[in-house]
Design brief:
This protein is an alpha+beta fold and 195 residues long. The protein folds into 2 domains: 91 residues, Glutaredoxin; 90 residues, Glutathione S-transferase Yfyf (Class Pi), Chain A, domain 2 (Up-down Bundle), CATH 1.20.1050. It has 8 helices and 4 strands, in the order βαβαββαααααα. A 4-stranded mixed beta sheet has the order 2-1-3-4, covered by helices on one side. Helix 1 packs antiparallel against helix 6 and helix 1 crosses helix 8. The longest helix is centred in the middle third of the chain and has 20 residues. Bound molecules: glutathione. The site of glutathione has 12 residues, from helix 1.
């Protein structure tokens, strides 16, 4: 049995998209971060950092329970468990490098954009979006077939809302966003109501 603890934020929906894509059965536990559900002693035992999402798999490797936090780690774990979305062996290095790029470089940069008026921050964000846009020229997905390298960045790119820095200025990235958004599992996860 898989228990997913989440709320309807970019990080929460990332895990939700991933589990919907795998088709694995799961139970969703809504952790209302506005109410402070993430700060209970019971939840703290699952994630000492008191953030969503988290996942508990009662049948982890070797039949033993596995507990995960960090949405990208949850994506890697579920992809491995389902045996999908990690790419063919020849695509694996690209799945790995783009997944880590999104977590370690793209996300911390794009997160600075919210309400930013500093031209240096805007320039850094444009540089990141431009790198992804150039990579996606002539490609449907980041690394071969649709994979976690597409699932991991989706919610972060989708929530960009800035007066001057716009995804629509990056046509390959915008087209990729539409392709991911059109997937049934993504629609289901994005449409899930919280609260
Ligand atoms: N890097 C973490 C970030 C987790 C995170 O910041 N979660 C936020 C919601 S998106 C949260 O739980 N906030 C509640 C709080 O800070 O108290 C991940 O990807 O899972």
């Amino acid at each position: 049995m898989i228990d997913l603890y989440a709320w309807g934020t970019t990080n929460g929906r990332r895990a939700l998209i991933m589990i919907e894509e795998t088709g694995l059965p799961y139970t969703l536990h809504q952790i209302d971060i506005q109410k402070g559900d993430q700060k209970t002693a019971a939840y703290e035992r699952i994630n000492p950092h008191r953030k969503i999402p988290a996942l508990v798999d009662s049948e982890g490797p070797g039949g033993k329970p596995a507990t995960l936090f960090e949405s990208a780690a949850i994506c890697f774990y579920l992809a491995e468990k389902a045996g999908r979305f990690l790419g063919k062996p020849e695509d694996r290095p690209n799945v790995l490098k783009w997944s880590i790029y999104h977590v370690a470089t793209m996300m911390p940069t794009i997160m600075l954009l919210r309400g930013a008026t500093d031209p240096a921050i805007e320039a850094r964000c444009r540089e990141t979006l431009d790198a992804m846009n150039r990579h996606l020229a002539g490609r449907d997905w980041f690394a071969g077939a649709y994979s976690i390298a597409d699932i991991i960045p989706f919610t972060r790119i989708q929530q960009i809302s800035h007066e001057r820095v716009k995804v629509s200025d990056y046509p390959n990235l915008a087209a990729w966003l539409d392709r991911v958004a059109a997937r049934p599992a993504v629609k289901k996860a994005m449409g899930r109501k919280f609260g």
